[in-house]
Amino acid sequence: MLGWVITCHDDNAQDMLHRLEEKYGPLAQCQVVSFWHGLSSNMLSRMMCDALHAADSGDGVIFLTDIAGSAPYRVAALMSHKHPACEVISGISYPLLERMLLSRESMSSSAFRDEIVSLGGPGVTSLWHQQQKNPPFVLLHDLYEY
């Protein structure tokens, strides 16, 4: 099963998890990290690292963030490069998480990423989708053999 790390500003992530658990019961492999004004980047990184390891059973972890480019998104993006089967999604909402809840049991992380982005509408994207729009920089001398 895919682990979830829900990370949003203020108490939005905790509110979403609370609503899901009220309706569906306790959610295994689901962690919350709240980003409060004034929280240092170092502390946020440590909290998200702990959450990643607590949510991961080996099948992968989905970071679910509220705002693309914000501190939780940036920290998740850095962490995702070091861990296999990690995806970073931004623009999440409670209805979208509820719709995707059962998919965590049957989908790969990349299939989950594509499904949540297609269902989420224009405000939902992923790190992978953003990288496809802006491919990595390649030095010209790397293109030619000498």
Automatic annotation (TrEMBL):
<protein>
    <submittedName>
        <fullName>PTS sugar transporter subunit IIA</fullName>
    </submittedName>
</protein>
<feature type="domain" description="PTS EIIA type-4">
    <location>
        <begin position="1"/>
        <end position="124"/>
    </location>
</feature>
<dbReference type="InterPro" id="IPR036662">
    <property type="entry name" value="PTS_EIIA_man-typ_sf"/>
</dbReference>
<keyword id="KW-0808">Transferase</keyword>
<keyword id="KW-0598">Phosphotransferase system</keyword>
<keyword id="KW-0762">Sugar transport</keyword>
<keyword id="KW-0813">Transport</keyword>
<dbReference type="InterPro" id="IPR051471">
    <property type="entry name" value="Bacterial_PTS_sugar_comp"/>
</dbReference>
<dbReference type="InterPro" id="IPR033887">
    <property type="entry name" value="PTS_IIA_man"/>
</dbReference>
<dbReference type="Pfam" id="PF03610">
    <property type="entry name" value="EIIA-man"/>
</dbReference>
<keyword id="KW-0963">Cytoplasm</keyword>
<dbReference type="InterPro" id="IPR004701">
    <property type="entry name" value="PTS_EIIA_man-typ"/>
</dbReference>
<keyword id="KW-0418">Kinase</keyword>
